[in-house]
Write a structure and sequence with these properties.
3-stranded antiparallel beta sheet; alpha/beta; Rossmann fold; 2 domains; 9 strands; 6-stranded mixed beta sheet; 35% helix
Length: 247
């Protein structure tokens, strides 16, 4: 398996019928980076994720990804199977992927328990989805994305439906997980404060044409905590990005 060298999106165009969602979209995602995509509804954020994952095809342009099949995808809805336990939901990729079916049951168990431990759910393996809070369900979804040990994590507004307190907790936990695992994260959100708190870079997409209006590298401490959210520098960056969105 070749080393993950990041992703290069070159001159991507994507149309759905007569509607052109992406027009000449270019983005470089270095290995190990945490980048957030922000923009109005319908600007093409989720489409970019789907093109990278190979869940959809570009009308034209190129997606250069050395590990196209080695990624985890986390959606806004946790999408847990209600009749399966937490453990079984996390181990689901091994059940449905032909490439993973050769892995032994002992290895699957080890990986699933390890993934649950990474999201602090090691004591919840035998629970069912109806017994979980919204935040716990999302953590199960993240564990399921991590169980195959991907080097790229694609996340499409995973915290949008959570209450503010849980959302703040999940942001800190995800950033810590990113630092510990050394994976690459591309995170879609409508929230500027969420994007700034977690990311190294924030990419603003224009409402029309889906191209990039602003690509902002963030000069913030490596260690993020709740105090950062009220700091002058944090709020200055929010204002700059907010003005970019308005333009």
């Amino acid at each position: 398996m070749s080393a993950f060298a990041g992703i290069q999106l070159q001159n991507l165009k994507k149309s759905f019928g007569l509607k052109e969602v992406l027009k000449n979209f270019n983005l470089q995602i270095p290995a190990g980076s945490f980048i957030s995509l922000v923009g109005p509804s319908g600007c093409g954020k989720s489409t970019v994720l789907r093109l990278i994952a190979g869940l959809d095809s570009a009308t034209s342009g190129d997606v250069q990804n050395t590990q196209a099949n080695h990624f985890g995808f986390v959606f806004q809805d946790a999408n847990l199977l209600p009749w399966k336990t937490v453990f079984e939901n996390v181990a689901l990729p091994f059940e449905i992927s032909p490439e993973l079916k050769a892995i032994s049951k002992n290895e699957i168990k080890s990986r699933a328990l390890e993934a649950l431990s990474k999201v602090n759910l090691q004591d919840s393996e035998n629970l069912f989805p109806h017994q979980l809070s919204g935040g716990m369900k999302m953590r199960v979804s993240i564990a399921r994305a991590l169980v195959t040990k991907p080097q790229l994590l694609l996340m499409d507004e995973p915290f949008a439906a959570l209450d503010e307190f849980t959302r703040y907790q999940m942001q800190i936990q995800l950033r810590n997980l990113w630092q510990q695992e050394g994976i690459t994260v591309l995170f879609v959100t409508h929230s500027l404060s969420e994007a700034v708190f977690m990311s190294e870079r924030v990419v603003l997409m224009n409402a029309v044409g889906g191209d990039i209006g602003l690509d902002q590298k963030l000069d913030l401490p490596k260690e993020r905590n709740d105090e950062l959210r009220t700091s002058p520098e944090f709020n200055r960056i929010i204002r700059t990005l907010s003005e970019g969105l308005k333009r």
